[in-house]
Design goal:
alpha/beta, 6-stranded parallel β-sheet, two-stranded antiparallel ribbon, 9 helices, about 40% helix, globular
């Protein structure tokens, strides 16, 4: 291996291998390329992978914390043909947001969102909800509106794996969920035609679990960094 390939990890596909995966996906009929993680901007070849997706005719979406989205990298991604950016936020208040993120990131995320809109990309904002930020949903929606988002995904934590083991600190009460649902309904009315709001309840409070990603491999296939192909994001947590 090349010692200068500092972004390579022993268990991750090479650039050429990813390009082969994308080509095979396009041949199977895949129309969209979602670059997620972890943090996809940690890949030094991310611009090259976006360009490959564009050459294959795929609509590409970068799902990112935005901490590594510098102006130079953003310009490169736009030139390569990236179609859409999705930025995650944790809360509408800097101290809480930085605590939940585990790193000072609030202002950097807002700067990145402004840059995304300046470059003309559609913007989706993703918020993972739980007991510690659910009561701030009104403020979160106001922040997302101020960010100029075209779409927001309000995704309540699903209690599997790590989240299940930490449910005492994360699981909201039924009353919290009821208040949040009312806030979401009001925001949908107020922002109708300006911003799409997707709100996902935790399976813990549903009568039946939702089919992962709309049903195993019915709409999406997940390819992990080491090349495993999975029918659902949570499939790696299932016992063999």
């Amino acid at each position: 291996s090349n010692p200068l390939e500092l972004a390579r990890y022993a268990d991750e596909l090479t650039t050429a291998e990813w390009q082969r995966v994308l080509t095979e996906a396009a041949e199977l009929g895949a129309l969209q390329l979602h670059l997620s993680g972890g943090e996809p901007l940690q890949r030094r070849d991310i611009v090259e992978l976006v360009r490959t997706g564009r050459e294959l005719g795929m609509y590409s979406n970068l799902v990112t914390s935005a901490l590594g989205l510098s102006p130079a990298r953003a310009e490169q991604l736009r030139e390569a043909g990236l179609d859409h950016v999705q930025i995650s936020i944790q809360a509408d208040e800097p101290i809480l947001s930085d605590r939940l993120a585990g790193t000072p990131s609030y202002e950097r995320k807002l700067d990145a969102a402004r840059m995304v809109k300046k470059l003309g990309w559609p913007l989706t904002v993703n918020v993972v909800l739980h007991r510690q930020n659910l009561d701030r949903i009104d403020g979160i929606l106001e922040l997302v509106e101020a960010m100029g988002a075209d779409r927001v995904e309000l995704a309540n934590t699903q209690y599997y794996g790590w989240a299940w083991r930490n449910r005492e600190g994360l699981l909201p009460s039924r009353a919290q969920l009821d208040r949040a649902e009312k806030a979401v309904r009001a925001a949908r009315e107020r922002l109708r035609g300006r911003m799409q709001i997707l709100y996902i309840l935790p399976d813990y409070y549903e009568r039946y679990p939702k089919p992962c990603m709309g049903g195993w491999a019915s709409r999406q296939v997940v390819v992990t960094p080491n090349g495993d192909a999975l029918p659902c994001l949570a499939a790696h947590e299932l016992p063999l």
